[in-house]
Every structure is written in C-alpha cells, then in structure tokens.
C-alpha cells in the first residue's frame, strides 16, 4: 500500500469532519448578499480544498472556479460538485500558477493566508496571494479574506506540550489522529515552527507514523492592511469573529478571526487621486 496515499486520504477526510466549528460559509454567503445584492457573481476560490465553501457558493447560483494543490482534497470536491453545471475546479499551486482574470470576487477563506504551503519565503508567499488576488479581479471587484488573527502570537505559539487536533476514521477505514508536541515563535521574524506526527492504523491493521514539521509567518493586521493597499485594494468592511463588529485597531484580545471585504480600485482613479491629494 502507498502509505503517503493512505495518509493524505485520511487527512482530507478528517479535515472535513472537524472543520465545522464555525458558520464561516453561511457568513460568507450573507456578506455577499449584503454587499452585492442577489445577482450571480463570477467567483474564484483559492485553495478550495474539498469544496466546503465553493460548492455552497455554486448552490447559491454563483459561477464558481476553484483550485487547490492537494489532489485528495480536490477529489472530495469533485464528488460534491456532481450535477452542478456552474462550478469548475482544477489542481494548481497558488504560488506558482496564474489565477485567471476578470473575476467579480476572489475568496481566500478557510485561513489560507496562514496555511499556504509553498517553497517561497512564507511572508513573500502571503503578500503574493494578495497581489495575485488583485490581478485576478476586474476593476471594482472584491476580495473576501477570512483568516486567524493572533492578538499575542508569543503566548499562543510558544508552547511545548503534546496535543491532538484532528482525530477520526475515513471512508477507507483508516483511523488515527494528528499529534503535535508544540511550537516556538520568534517575535522578530514572526515565524512560528512546530513539530509532531500523524499516527494511523489502516483497515488491515498496518501502523503508519508520518512525521510532520510545520512553519508559518504570523502577520500583524497592519502588515495585512499594507499588503492590501500595495496591491491596490481599498478596505470597505471588516468583521471580527463572524459578527457584524468591525475589527478594532489595535486589535483586542477577543479578536481571533478577521474577515476583510476589500475593493480593487480603478488604477486610473487611484493614480489621479494620488495626483490631486
Ligand atoms: C485549511 S484548508 C482550506 C480548504 C478550504 N478552503 C476550506 O476552507 O475548507 C487549506 C487548503 O489549502 C490548500 N493549499 C495550501 N497551499 C496551497 C497552494 N500553494 N496552492 C494551492 N492550494 C494550497 C491545501 O491543499 C488545503 O486544501
């Protein structure tokens, strides 16, 4: 048996079983209705995974394109989109591929800003996601971002203790859990590094241990706002923790999730505004 195949299949399945602690999809649909009315939009979802977000968008009558690097996630998406004519999903790396052009809305949800996997410098990869979102939008189009915002990353990530995040059984009968032994955060580089493994037992009783090391750049709100501005976006609305409350600056301890609705400015308008200021 291909152990890598078994492990990635298991992860894609348990991710979906556990990623239901918030009403993030309902919230996105509500924001789209509030901000754009009920007309069908041409939407791109970056890193669409198993279709948890892009399929409900298609079911709400939008024209949806999604892509993801992970074929196991994507296969789940293909199954979910069966029978829907207004959705197209494909495999691509967000860091290295072109995203297309002229979308009304680009959705970067499911915390992709903090979960991007690429060979690039992490901070550069995050900035480039925002720049690519701008390039994929028509002028006047919008970016919807939904990501973890950490009030105190030092407290959150400097922790050395064993814990398990995902646990469960997939459709192949593989059962197991993810285990982490903690992480370390460097406040100067804003890089957080963690270590752990997945421990799995297949349907035929074989044990699989997959070592896992992870590495992320944890941006501040100011950094994200600067990246948006550099990419030509104007922030129109912010929401914290899936409520109507805007994100306060400086952020408060209760803020854990940031949702940003930003408009791609007309390039001529933006440059003439600069001239007349
Ligand atoms: C936390 S999951 C979110 C999936 C989906 N958006 C959701 O909310 O259910 C992160 C996804 O990002 C994808 N991903 C990570 N890095 C990527 C990259 N460089 N290009 C494309 N997809 C990527 C992973 O394969 C995974 O499906």
UniProtKB/TrEMBL annotation:
EC number: 2.1.1.222, 2.1.1.64
Membrane-spanning segments: none
Record-linked CDD domains: AdoMet_MTases (cd02440)
InterPro entries tied to this protein: Methyltransf_25 (IPR041698), SAM-dependent_MTases_sf (IPR029063)
Keyword hit for Transferase: yes
Coiled coil (residue ranges): none
Protein name per UniProt: Class I SAM-dependent methyltransferase
Protein source organism: Paenibacillus puldeungensis
Taxonomic classification: Bacteria, Bacillati, Bacillota, Bacilli, Bacillales
């Amino acid at each position: 048996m291909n152990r890598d195949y078994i492990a990635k299949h298991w992860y894609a399945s348990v991710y979906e079983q556990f990623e239901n602690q918030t009403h993030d999809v309902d919230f996105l649909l509500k924001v789209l209705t509030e901000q754009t009315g009920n007309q069908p939009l041409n939407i791109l979802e970056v890193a669409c995974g198993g279709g948890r977000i892009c399929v409900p968008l298609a079911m709400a009558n939008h024209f949806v394109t999604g892509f993801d690097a992970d074929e196991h996630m994507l296969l789940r998406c293909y199954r979910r989109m069966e029978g829907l004519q207004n959705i197209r999903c494909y495999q691509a790396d967000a860091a290295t591929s072109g995203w297309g052009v002229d979308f009304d809305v680009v959705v970067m949800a499911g915390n992709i800003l903090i979960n991007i996997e690429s060979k690039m410098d992490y901070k550069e990869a995050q900035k480039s996601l925002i720049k690519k979102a701008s390039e994929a939008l028509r002028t006047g189009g919008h970016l919807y971002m939904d990501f973890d915002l950490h009030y105190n990353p030092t407290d959150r990530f400097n922790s050395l203790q064993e814990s398990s995040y995902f646990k469960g059984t997939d459709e192949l009968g593989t059962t197991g859990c993810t285990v982490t032994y903690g992480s370390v955060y460097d406040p100067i580089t804003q890089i957080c590094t963690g270590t752990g493994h997945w421990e799995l037992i297949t349907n035929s009783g074989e044990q699989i241990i997959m070592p896992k090391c992870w590495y992320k750049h944890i941006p501040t709100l100011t950094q994200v706002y600067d990246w948006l501005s550099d990419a030509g976006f104007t922030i129109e609305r912010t929401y914290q923790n899936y409520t109507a409350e805007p994100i306060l600056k400086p952020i408060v301890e209760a803020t854990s999730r940031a949702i940003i609705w930003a408009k791609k400015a007309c390039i001529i308008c933006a440059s003439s505004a600069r001239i007349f200021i």
